[in-house]
Amino acid sequence: MENLESLRSELNDAVGAADDLAALEDIRVSALGKKGRITAMMKSLGGMDPEQRKTTGQALNVLKDEIALAIETRKSALEDAELDARLMDEKIDVSLSIRPESEGSIHPISQTIDEVVAILGGMGMTVREGPNIEDDWHNFTALNIPPDHPARQEHDTFYLPGSVEERKVLRTHTSPVQIRTMMNSEPPIRIIVPGRTYRCDYDATHSPMFHQVEGLWIDEDTHMGHLKGCLIEFCRAFFGVEDLPVRFRPSYFPFTEPSAEVDIGCIRDGDGFRIGRGDDWMEILGCGMVNPKVLENCNIDSTKYQGFAFGMGIERLAMLKYGIPDLRTFYESDLRWLRHYGFSALDVPSLVGGLNR
Ligand code: PHE
Question: Which of 76, 162, 191, 328 is surrounded by the most beta carbons within 10 Å?
């Protein structure tokens, strides 16, 4: 029989000195495990006379409980220390200032939409939105594009699954919002519709998803002169060129009659160009007087009301204004690219401050 006193102090010292959970487990096994020292002494009680067995047995039980308690206490202390160490290690200092390169900036598409809205909003037009997933009627039929019309192919439409009569489309232009607005409100109508549009096309100047802004103005005595005045003023304000030449070239759209495409003056030098009074033209938008058939499709009396409409590509406007050569770069989320073109997070377009940077 070992000396219980020296065993007690030896085991207590060992438990106090164990500095990780594995070392502590080794001590537990060596004292209280199946072949542990205290367990072995318990087993030897059988060979003792009754008196001795009683006193030694009691003393051993006290020692066994004491050591088991010491091990448990030490174990939770080690576990706490381990958790504290991990918390320190994984700590995130949220007060750290951001790195300059992760600063956000406004996207040129948002900037251009804001500028267009500021100019046309100043003429009394308000912003309307509509769904990106349209039905055939709003995107084509109500706009006087019949089922077999080539415009449906020209638009390279993305169709959603479904029977030919019922399938939905990703809207190919913002014009269905004209229809939705005319169906739901009475003239006078003066709206602009910025939004996403979709066509199956991809190269340096086309993307399957792009943005347009639509304009619609309907009233009792609206005429072509209003359309021209509105768009000439818009082009000059947007490009910040007071005497910018603006040309209306006859064209065709099923939903307008007459229709025109609008060109603005530009100066070419070598591969590049500059918007302004020069000897060349650049096409920027489509427009026309709303076809009476479209008004009738929307239950608006075409003998009483007339209107004009226009639609233009936001990316194209931004590319021309900011000299961005490739449309695909708009969607690459490269902050260096944004910085290169000088878009700042704090840019707020306003007509009062002037839109030019
Ligand atoms: N919806 C035409 C397009 O996407 C643009 C347009 C709108 C033309 C309104 C005339 C009037 O090409």
Answer: 191
- Taking a C-beta distance cutoff of 8 angstroms, is the pair 139, 176 a contact? yes
**pTM of the full predicted structure?**
0.70
Ligand 1 pocket test target in 154, 227, 248, 255 with most atoms within 8 Å of CB: 255
- Res 298: pLDDT: 97
pLDDT at position 102:
55
The answer to whether residues 325 and 315 touch, using CB atoms and an 8 Å cutoff, is no
Site to substitute for ligand 1 among 181, 253, 262, 285, most atoms within 8 A of C-beta: 253
The Å distance, Cα 287 to ligand 1 centre, comes to 6
If you ran DSSP here, which 8-state letter would residue 191 be given?
A: E
pLDDT digit string, tens, across residues 156-186: 889 999 887 788 999 999 999 999 999 999 9
Instruction: Indicate if ligand 1 lies below 6 Å from the C-beta of 311.
Output: yes
Q: Whose CA is nearest to atom 10 of ligand 1?
A: 287
3-state DSSP assignment of residue 235:
helix
Spatial neighbors of 155 by CB under 8 A, at least 6 apart, are 172, 173, 199
For residue 352, give both structure tokens.
């009062």
204 vs 65, more confident:
65
| Continuous H helices in the chain | 4-17, 21-32, 37-43, 50-89, 108-122, 136-139, 150-154, 176-184, 224-239, 292-297, 314-322, 335-340
Segments in 200-269 forming alpha helices (H): 224-239
Ligand 1 lined by 256 (C-beta under 6 Å): yes
Amino acid at 116: V
Residue 213 CA to ligand 1 centre (angstroms): 9
The single-letter DSSP state of residue 46 is: G
How many residues are recorded in the chain?
357
Determine if ligand 1 sits within 6 Å of the CB of residue 286: yes
> Which atom number of ligand 1 is nearest to the Cα of residue 287?
10
Atom 9 of ligand 1, nearest CA residue: 310
Tell me the per-residue pLDDT of 112-150, one tens digit each, with 9 for 90 and over. Answer: 999 999 999 999 999 999 999 999 999 999 999 988 877
- Gap between the Cα atoms of 164 and 141, Å rounded: 14
User: Cα separation of 109 and 202, whole Å?
Assistant: 18
